Amino acid sequence: MTPADRRERIEFCALVHALRSLPCPAIVAIDGWSGSGKTWLASHVVAQLGGTGLGWTVIHMDDFVPGWDGLSAGVAVVHQDIALPLARGETARARVWDWHDSRPGVELEFRPQEGLILEGSGSIAATGELATLGIWIDLDEAHRRRRLRRRSDYEAYAPYIDHWAGQERAIERECDSMRRADLVVAEVGRDSLVLERASERGRAALAPPANTR
User: Fold this and answer.
1) Between the CA atoms of 72, 75, 81 and 86, what dihedral angle is there, to the nearest 10 degrees?
2) What percent of the chain has pLDDT over 70?
């Protein structure tokens, strides 16, 4: 993690502006270790994007992962069936994984005229260079463990925490996901977030709108 004196706090509205300004089709990846707050950030930011004229859809990596051993397979499915078609301006179709019955589920459709926020472990790997913006949440392990214990599905998830974490680490090492992120944030709140690092593209996205007087 970045030393505290090198971080900066920015208003949450700056992130909303960044997404609102992205070209269509916009593909935003929100990645990070389990328990870092990816789902919360995705739902909170999309709620603030209402009325932008671009319909935003949040999809969850977990929906396309075929079981507790399948994170890498889920990354491949999302890349091939969702990210690639959307980047070509085509409608994307992919089947979710039915975790209850351990089999493929319903097919979902995503249109390139919409903005897509893909959240979950492996999302930066799944989108790669096709992502319009990549965000990595770099929350410390102790904080992440506390968040996990507060999850409604914690009892079902607990036996697999370490196994899942191993798959996360393997994908991050292979794809260098954290380094490739446009924005790395250490803390996310309702009104602000703490920025650890931003790429040139990330800085450009966060820049305030030009004064057009």
Assistant:
1) -160
2) 93
